[in-house]
Input
Amino acid sequence: MSNESTNRKAVVLLSGGLDSATTLAVARRDGFACYCLSIDYGQRHRVELELAMKQANQQGSIEHRIVSVELRAIGGSALTADMAVPKGRTIDAQIPITYVPARNTVLLAICLGYAEVVGAFDLFIGANAVDYSGYPDCRPAFLNAFEALANVATKATVEGRGRFQLHAPLVRLSKAEIIKLGAALGVDYSETLSCYDPDASGAACGRCDSCVLRRKGFIDAGIEDPTRYQSK
Amino acid sequence: MSNESTNRKAVVLLSGGLDSATTLAVARRDGFACYCLSIDYGQRHRVELELAMKQANQQGSIEHRIVSVELRAIGGSALTADMAVPKGRTIDAQIPITYVPARNTVLLAICLGYAEVVGAFDLFIGANAVDYSGYPDCRPAFLNAFEALANVATKATVEGRGRFQLHAPLVRLSKAEIIKLGAALGVDYSETLSCYDPDASGAACGRCDSCVLRRKGFIDAGIEDPTRYQSK
Output
């Protein structure tokens, strides 16, 4: 384990999915004391929040908070409104209806507030711009703009206590590379869920964009897929 | 009434306070079809949300939404945690404990999501950097950084449907100038509340930073103060 940042605090956004679990493992490897944050934004896959809690515990975080934000009140997404999650579609250049308007902006905004409260200047997000659904708020241009915003937004920076750094360690990795990295760091992927439309037991559909990307990732990585899929 | 932007949609952040009520009046004057948004972030002064609803109605908005975000779960402010609101202090260079970590970042993030859902590209916020409490997220540097973020954050901009513009028409006005402007536009300030620590009936304390600024604003504007203060 690297000790370069020992005792330095970080806030890690944790969704219960594969990418954020890996991101937490990277932050821990780099010696950060991790404060994990999950946002309950009315997503259909609420079982992810329980898995996020498990990941935070398994990976030795300092604490885990869940903050609710009622994005259902504005709607506009298959993940928060009454629309069907698309299955078996080709992942192409179009941004799909699973896009949640301004989702990562909202998540990072709350993350920034939490970081300021605990005195952290390092924020971690599992955003990925390679094997992803084309969401604009996963791209480096967005992440850079948020970091710039963070550094003029808070009392902590105005008072000169530090500069915020937004870490997205997975942003340029393929899904297979992410899985290899996490496996090497001991992430238990059986306790993560990426599916946009799991059943009540938390079994994955296997056919939404997110399942398709994850499934292929395990195959390409040559690592056995521990995901529990719904029986057809 | 200017017609330059007739039928153009805007989202207006409405808190129930004096500044945002005036901001809504400016957006209406400029011909925008206004979608009002209030954020219930666990503030003590919840009576403001009812006043926000009244303002939205009085001023002929298209709709008014309230979105809850549980900022109490991260704490860190006299407005959302169990700390006393300071009274009778001198408003100086220090940022007071009524500062809510990353508050305007969170508010604008949700505002951006709502704008994307309704197809608006104009966001209005009543931020003011003259007669204010020194909050960093009221300054032009912050507002400019948020506008830059908005324009890389969403499907709406990636798909080239428009560019977001963040309007803060009060940012360089004194409180007296804001009150004169709103009064000229017919804003009913008796139906607004700025106090950080109102009683259950919605009467203002008269002594917190926000009350002090507001009180002085009416005096300097030479306009009768319709605020209902708590009897001592």
Summary: Strands of chain A lie at 9-13, 33-40, 63-68, 122-124, 165-167.
